Amino acid sequence: MRLGGLPFEAVRIAGDRAVIAGHLPLDADGAIAGPLGKVGAEVSPEEAYDAARGVALAMMASLEAAGIDLDRVEWRKVFGMVNAAPGFNALPGVINGFSDVLLEVFGDRGRHSRSAIGVAELPFGAPVEVEAEVALLPAVAAADPPPQRASTSGARLPADPGLRAVDYGGISPLTLPAEALLRAIKALSHLFWITIAGTVLAIFLSALANLGGSADGALAFGEYSIPVSVLPIGCLAFAMFMLWLTAARFRMLEAALGDDDLTASLARDIFRLDPPVLDVFDAGNLRPFALLSGCSVLLWIWSLFFGSSVGLIFSATIDRGALTSTDEGPIFGVYAVATLVVMAYGATKIVRPLRRILGRLHGEGFTVGPIRLVMAMVVLVAGVLVTNPDLFTAFTTEEWRTVGPSRANAVDGETLVLEGGQIVSLGGIAALRPGQTCGDAEGRRYPCGDQATAYLQSLVQDRWVHCFVSYPDLGVCMPLQEGEPPPAQLQDALQLENLQAQMVVAGFAFPEGDGVDFMAELRDEAQRARAGAWQGSFEPVGPWAERLGRD
Description:
The protein is of the alpha+beta class. It has 15 helices and 17 strands.
């Protein structure tokens, strides 16, 4: 460093030590090296790190210029200053550039105590300035191999092949693998919380879809609506992404545990001091009957999530009243297969690394076990039933049950609410939807969907309603006069003027699926009579509902 007549020395030798003045990053010709400016603003942390390396080289050049043999130098104290922009506090990482050079060049003699502070300004706008103190070893001692360093407690470090005795300027080489381990553990905690929140959200959305979203084709949130058909895709995408992230963090843990600098005992201590939210790495997870261990709880959470997802898929693909009117089986099958694929991916990518990690930590293999698998299936089925409680009734009762006679109100052109809150969707028809418009004979638009709802309401306004109902709420309903006996069998209701037939004759509904077998002639009669929507132009209900969901 060229002082240019300044009233101080770059290196001051006093007996067996030397004090080194603050040095800036210099070029090979002694000029101040760029870039200049504040770290975190004009200068990046990476550029500042390189500048700190340049300071170390400049300082060694000054030692040689002072006549000091570098083979005699043992570093004692380093004081690093960073020209930091407001808010920049990654100061140790910058000064690491200086420390790394000392360790690369001097080995064990480069170990030192150190400070790293941020300052408002440095001379000439330099990003880094460092001052230091070194000890000067006798020439003979410097030629000898450096002695084994003792630990701070006075005892020598144990002969551990997985733990190096070298210390990087007060920062152990264990810092990197240990920090990687800690970050992976914290990331897993965050992922577990997100998974729990996602499970609760899946249950909530499944319940909403089951309550009525499938009838409307969308879930309404204020002025916004979400098409029900999108929800299963979103659920499976969320599950796949979370499983992928979790597997990636497990791989990060494996990599950290595989570092030679990290011993198994230290790794266990880190896990004990800062375990993830679900302690899936505790030795208790190895017991096959530990049903409340971290691994078990994680398995229950994912099982509940997939169970609620299957319930959501069921609610989204099996519309109310569509069980016999449209064939939704293939769509449900595609979603079911996709769910199984995601589950298999999770089991492969998470269980295997988890088994290896537990084996490395505790020396014992981990198995899920039949008890956990049975419980997982129970939780999965429970998740389906929680979001679709009517499924239990559908599988434990007769295929068709009678409801009523009861008073009823129309929700739309094909849905009734009976006394006690029982919802019944008229099967075999697709009625004009509320808000749908049609063209009359002169081409004028009119609210045909609202008229369909009003007409169904007029059919049940002053009458009793008796229904034969199957899962989920699919029904064949008959309007009855006061004192009129209800039909005894479903077949009898199909042959009479039930509500479905009357809606088709009025031109406000159209037979679908199995309903075509019973009401095709009634549809043709309504078309010939130009009744309801048949008087002019209209859009079929299915395409209209799909377009509305997209909009």
